[in-house]
Amino acid sequence: MSNTQQDFTERLLIDAGICGGMRVLDVGCGTGDVTYLLARLVGNTGVVVGADHDVRTLSIARQRIAPQHYDNPTFIESDLLSLPESLGEFDAVVGRRVLMYQADTVAAVRAIAKHVKLDGIVVFQEHDTTLVPASLDGFPLHKRAQGWLQHMIEREGADLHIGFNLHRIFTQAGLAVEEVRGECLIQTPNCAYGLGHIVRACLPRILAHGVATADEVAIETLQERLDNERSQSQAIYIGDMLFGAWARKLQ
Fold first, then answer.
1. What does the pLDDT look like over 95-143, one tens digit per residue?
2. Cα 244–Cα 248–Cα 251 angle in degrees, nearest 5
3. SS3 track for 138-175
4. Could you tell me which of 179, 191, 195 has the C-alpha nearest to residue 132?
5. Residues with Cβ < 8 Å from 153, sequence gap 6 or more?
6. Domains of the chain with CATH codes
7. What are phi and psi of 27, to 5 degrees?
8. 132-179 pLDDT, tens digit each
9. Can you give the pTM of this predicted structure?
């Protein structure tokens, strides 16, 4: 069990074999959270490239600064299914919350695998939003906020069961699955989690899809209200289910 998404991601990448000196591609990199984590893991002897089709998020990613003593990643604008051949081959390709938005996940993984060296690694982290929230206490505000995110994702056409499908997707794409793991995201009365900050980041999408109104969300006080609700309870709250998997390209 873990109470931080980054801890799960970092452990997943390390256990999958991401290490110093590797050349790694982060597909659907967004604003670069995983990309900069990869930069730290591969060190100055490695190379990290982040790819995304969204110009706005790429602009944010490029303005960030790599951890001290590590090289900045390179970012390119590209759709996952049309990655340029000029990228060459990588020791590993990584993605987080990316496959869930692909219309044909097997075709997407096959396209990605073309850029992986023989014996290279494909690693994905995805989430399942159907097993949670779970608690023995009420947590009405937590459940409401979690519901906004789930309904937003659902209306965007994402696969809400993607975590359960990872083994099948990798196998049908011709990769050899090495491990699939799952982990709950647990909140306790004294363990803060930035659910309100996640809602803030997703607020334009929540509003655009008609999931909730700005008045209903009341974003300026949401995190404070969530913290108060959690601290006043003696129960735990399970707010997310993380899945991670990696597979190897053997042919």
1. 999 999 999 999 999 999 999 999 999 999 998 878 888 898 889 999 9
2. 150
3. CCHHHHHHHHHHHHHHHHCCCCCCHHHHHHHHHHHCCC
4. 195
5. 100, 129, 160
6. 5-248 (3.40.50.150)
7. -90, 145
8. 888 988 899 999 999 999 999 999 989 988 999 999 999 999 999 999
9. 0.88
